[in-house]
Amino acid sequence: MPARKYKTAEGILNKKSLKGIAEVQDAAARLNRIIVRALLDVGENAVSIQPSSAALAEGSRITEFYTKPLEMLLKRNMIPVIYGDVVLDLKQGYSIISTEELFVFLAKRIRPQKIISAGMVDGVFTANPFKGHKGKLISEISSKNYPQIKKMLVGSAGIDVTGGMLLKVEKYLELSSVGIESYIINGKVKNCLKEALLGKNIKGTIIKC
User: In 3D, which of 206, 130, 137 has the Cα closest to residue 173?
Assistant: First the structure.
């Protein structure tokens, strides 16, 4: 909400922008703590990683990220919980960096086996299911069929100032070019995330080269 109110994604526009930056950073951090607490409550050793204090951007693209703490957490089998955040931007003062943008930057350096995105629907559809349209689930997206699929993509169901489903798919296609597959699944379906992590066949959309 504060990101939309203060137009934070556009950078420092006026004096109110500084208030907006602080409000957005606080809101993002509080949401992150909810996720970390949920993981702790089920016995996982989760640790928050704050992009606003570790990254720099230029034109809303990450240029620097100090990744050593994150890498050390992974080596100790702990779970670093990163999140979309406001970061200092060399061109526009500040920008909002989406989780997908962070994934692209980090995945090229850390090389995960796969990316799993758990949303509110089964994957990518040919029409917006939140508006009552009976679209079909797209089981696979690649650079070959993306030009046709792109025109079907829309934003998110809630407030998302970073691009919604369109940005998500484009960022995951970028990762597919370096051999990292991504999956978009329904996080509301019981055991769906667990099965995806275990590599079982699940209902969803795979994005691959």
Answer: 206
